[in-house]
Amino acid sequence: MTDYRYAQAVTTIDSRAAAEALARSAVEARVAACAQVSAPIHSTYRWRGAVENAEEWKIVFKTTAERYPALERHIREHHGYEVPEIVLLPILAGNPAYLSWISEETAPPV
């Protein structure tokens, strides 16, 4: 298991509409309690031997360590990129009431 209970998962995507759809679908699926879309951001990266530039939208998902594997699967299944960025950042501390809310909102349906 992990040494943290809560986390933020980050991805980027190519349009505002796609970002909002992915954010909403993850919250509806209860794999994230919250998803924040910010943008546009400008990314520079190497892809298939060339340096590329793109305008992207960043999504930050709030989830639990337990629900992260389901969130990662959800992002992979609903993302348009061949190799989407999916990075997990542990939340080491926070407002106890907020963290409890994350747990409540990501509890799998019974």
Structural description of this entry:
The protein has 110 residues and is of the alpha+beta class. The chain has one domain (6-105): Alpha-Beta Plaits, CATH 3.30.70.120. Helices cover 31% and strands 38% of the residues. It has 3 helices and 4 strands. It has helices at residues 16-28, 68-78, 96-105, and strands at 6-13, 34-47, 50-64, 87-91. The protein has a 4-stranded antiparallel sheet with strand order 2-3-1-4. The radius of gyration is 14 Å and the shape is elongated. The model has no long low-confidence stretch (mean pLDDT 95).
What percentage of the residues does DSSP assign to strands (E)? 35-45%
Number of domains: 1
Please state the overall shape, judged from the principal axes of the Cα atoms: elongated
The main sheet orders its strands as 2-3-1-4
- What is the level 1 CATH name? Alpha Beta
Q: Report the major sheet.
A: 4 strands, antiparallel
Helix-residue proportion: 25-40%
CATH architecture level-2 label = 2-Layer Sandwich
Q: Please state the average pLDDT score.
A: 95
By oligomeric state, this entry counts as single chain
How many β strands by DSSP?
Answer: 4
- Order of SSEs: EHEEHEH
Structural category: alpha+beta
What is the first-to-last residue Cα distance?
23 Å
Which key phrases capture this entry?
110 residues; alpha+beta; Alpha-Beta Plaits; four-stranded antiparallel beta sheet; 31% helix; elongated
Quick take:
The protein has three helices and four strands, in the order E-H-E-E-H-E-H. The chain has helices at 16-28, 68-78, 96-105; strands at residues 6-13, 34-47, 50-64, 87-91.
